[in-house]
Each structure stands twice: as C-alpha cells, then as structure tokens.
Amino acid sequence: MSKEFIPPAKPIIGDAEREAVDEVLRSGMLAQGAEVTAFEQEFSQELLDGRSTVSVNSGTAGLHLGLLAAGVGLGDEVIVPSFTFAATANAVALTGATPVFADIEPDHYCLAPEHVAELITERTKGIMPVHLYGHPANMPALQRLAEQHGLALFEDAAQAHGASLDGHPVGTFGTFAMFSLYPTKNMTSGEGGMVATGDAEVDRTLRLLRSQGMERQYENEIVGFNARMTNLHAAIGRVQLSKVGEWTKTRQDNARFFDRNLHGVGVPAVADRAVHVYHQYTITVPEDRDGFATALKEEHQIGSGVYYPIPNHRLPSFARQEDLPNTEQAARTVLSLPVHPSLDDEDRERIVTAVNTLAKAGA
Ligand SMILES: *Cc1c(COP(=O)(O)O)cnc(C)c1O
Fold this sequence. Notes:
By secondary structure, the chain is α/β, with parallel strands linked by helices. It has helices at 15-27, 34-47, 59-69, 87-94, 113-119, 139-149, 200-209, 231-261, 289-300, 325-333, 345-362; strands at residues 53-56, 77-81, 98-102, 124-127, 152-156, 164-165, 168-169, 176-180, 193-197, 274-275, 281-284, 334-337. The protein has two domains: 15-241, Aspartate Aminotransferase, domain 2 (3-Layer(aba) Sandwich); 244-361, Aspartate Aminotransferase, domain 1 (Alpha-Beta Complex).
C-alpha cells in the first residue's frame, strides 16, 4: 500500500488570495501603494500591539536595513546565534559589522545569555537573538545584559509570528524585529518581510533605506536600496494575516498531539510563560538522526527537515574556529516533523506511528 507523501511544509493558498491578487492586477497599481500601507497597519494591530511596522521585499532585507537604520556598520560587532538560518549573520556581515557567534540554550535552541555575556567587547553594538522554530528567546535575561552594557537588542522573529513571552508579543522587545513572509513561514506574501520598531528615527530611516533614500520623489536624502514590497505581495499577505491566528492554533494543537503521543525521541520544551507558535516541531534523535529521516521518508512517506545541519560558524562563508557545544549537539540531533495546519487526523496518526516505530527499532 503506497501512502501519500506528507510534506514537511505546505503553504495554504486559497481563492481569497487569488482574488486579492487579481484585484490588484485589475487596478494597475502593482508596486508599493495602498495595499502595502494597509498590510503594514493590519500587521502591527494583529501581531504587535500596534507597534509600527515597515514592509520590505524579504526578511533578509528587513534584517539588513534594520541593522543599518539602527546604526550598525563597519567596526561594530553584533552577537548572534550560530544555530540559525544564515540570513541572521549574513545581514550583520552585509552592514560591514562582524557577527560574533554565541552558543544556544540546549532546551529551547535560542541564544544562551550566559555565553553572550562572555563575548561582549568594546566593539559590541548589539545582540540579535532568533526566536527559533517559533519559540521566544530568553528576552528578560538578554534585556538585562543589554541594559548593563548599553547595547541594542534586535530580534530575528522570522519564524515567530504571534509568539509571546510574559504576555508580550515577540517583536516588541528590541530596537527592531524582523518577520519573514517566505512561503514556508507561518504566513506568507510570496516573498517579503516586515520590520517592527518602536523608535521613530529607525522607522523613518528604514522607510528611506527601502526606497533609494527618498521620502519625496527625486529628493534623495541618503543612499538607499530598492527593497519595497509590492501591492501584489501585500494583497496575499493581508489575506494570510487574517488566517494566521487560526493556523497557529492548529499548529499548537498538532504539537500537543505529538507531545502526548510520541515516545522514544526528545520532544520540544516550552519555557515558562512562553507561547510557542511551532514554525517547526523539532524532536531530537540522539543516534543516527539522518538515517531516521531517510527511513521516515522511504518507509513511511513522511517528509522532515534538519534546521540546521551546519552551524553558521562552520559554513564556508564564515569559517570560524569556535567552541559551541550545545550548537554542535543540536546540529547533530534535531529533526523537524510536519506540524503545519494542513495535516489531518490521519496524517497526525501516521506521523506518530512512524516516529514511534522507528524510535523503538533504533533503541
Ligand atoms: C527565513 C529566515 C530569514 C530570512 O527571511 P527571508 O524572508 O527568507 O529573507 C532570516 N532568519 C531566519 C531565522 C529565517 O528563518
């Protein structure tokens, strides 16, 4: 009996998205305009307690421009996790600053404040935690460190739309925070990013940087990029934003089901007073994780993902000698199972049966 493949991620695109795009096409106003402005306002109301947001054409552009707007540049250091997607450190490096790689906490895979403390130098300008897999980083400890040393906090919230800590949404802690709208993220606009900031100066600089340094046409104030979101992308994003709350609940419900029913593998921990939005549901497989993933796919037709197999400090693009034991351990053992809102009851049962069968066989 051959079963249908369960993909590790699956964007949900419906008639409402198609109609919204068609409406923009019919209007002829394709580039940044009214749809984009409406999307920014709705995103800030829905996910950020009203904190201002600036849209851009990718999450990576959001990090890059956010850092530039916050004054990060040549000679500065920004402390980032090594256990993340390369965009985090790439954005720091693209400003001319140096990403300094810190280890993670073993239970939640986010930046370890004690290790960050050891890495602070006179050149450190800021700390950029990642709310990895949709779990908020330890912001209270990082905020204390930032205050003690006069540093800025920047949030890579690419994977964490709607996550919160102590009742505060992620994206409201730092000088700025970036949310990615790439198709595999918890919501999408095709490609795109949203940058939240409570700092009026950073907000204005971001708007200048994304559009050639212009507020008024042809009166360029600073040197800038073209990183504008289009009305077409914003139209998709607005529809997705109206659904992301329900999708998050389904992700959380899927995660609870796995928590209760998986045996013989490590299941994700959630910190006290944290709301996890399960961009990924990441288990640990201590022995032969890659063989486990292959068997899931070939014997059970279940997709999975390793985020991330090579920590940033060991990528050819950075090639640093660092000793980050929790990072190395995670890179060796993590495996993300499908947790997306398209799973039905039968898919969830199949995933549990497959993981438990493989875990038992391996034990
Ligand atoms: C996806 C992602 C990014 C980059 O976002 P893009 O929209 O793909 O440019 C940055 N950081 C993390 C942690 C991500 O997962």
